[in-house]
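Homework help thread (please don't just give me the answer)

Our assignment gives two proteins as sequence + structure token strings and asks us to describe the second one. The first is just a warm-up. Here they are:
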Amino acid sequence: DSDVIFKSSDGVLFKLHKINLSVNSRGFPPAEFSTLNEIVQMSETSDILELLFQFCYPYRRPDLELIEFKVLTSLAEAAEKYEVFPAMSMCNIQIKSNILQNAVDVTLYAAKHGYTDILDITYPLVLKEPIGEIVSKLPYHIVVPWVRYDQEFTVIYFSLVY
């Protein structure tokens, strides 16, 4: 009774209901759009899609505290890509809880997806990283503000220390 089929990058098929997808996301074909039994190829692996699609149904959500950070960030990227709103919110909360352990990765996630509240927290934590390494991974629209902030922080720091 499913009406859309997704195929993961590792070949696993997921049979879903468009109505559930349309209620919980904006990144999938709307319920009234006919896919005519075509299989939609996805770039994500089956383990990520398995987690992601759980956020599209009215069931208990997966406990994101139990998954490793690399899986969490992959899930967060998929949630942002397909705009699965419940997953976006839960991933955001869990990623924030990993700021101290994964400051650079959290910074890059926040910069890519426009979470300035997270950037405000992570910036001081990544100061020890070479600015060239951070800037080379940032989205272009963040580079200039990041460099300016870094320069201002450096001036303030040295005025207090010396």
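The one we have to describe:
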Amino acid sequence: MNGISKKEIKNNLTAGIMPIYNIQSLCNMAAKCGINIPSKIIEQFSEDQEQNERAAVNICIKQIKDLQNMGINNFHFYTLNQSSLILKILDELSLTQ
């Protein structure tokens, strides 16, 4: 955000949010791109699908709240044809009707 402020960019930013649907797939993609996934994120996932969904929801909620604290309030959610996880996130943020 500091770089944006220094360049005096006035347009609203839209942050892309993609929940972790499959931690192994994410780790594989990250490895191909030379990116490290922090262990504190990887450790939240296991063989238990319910726990994984809960972890994905919690991670997204934290990302959204952190971004909101930086002044970003527009979000694009990558559903990848799995809207139920996005609905859980929106529900927890009290954004569903």
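TA reply:
I won't write it for you, but here's a hint about the kind of observation we're looking for: The chain has one domain: 2-92.
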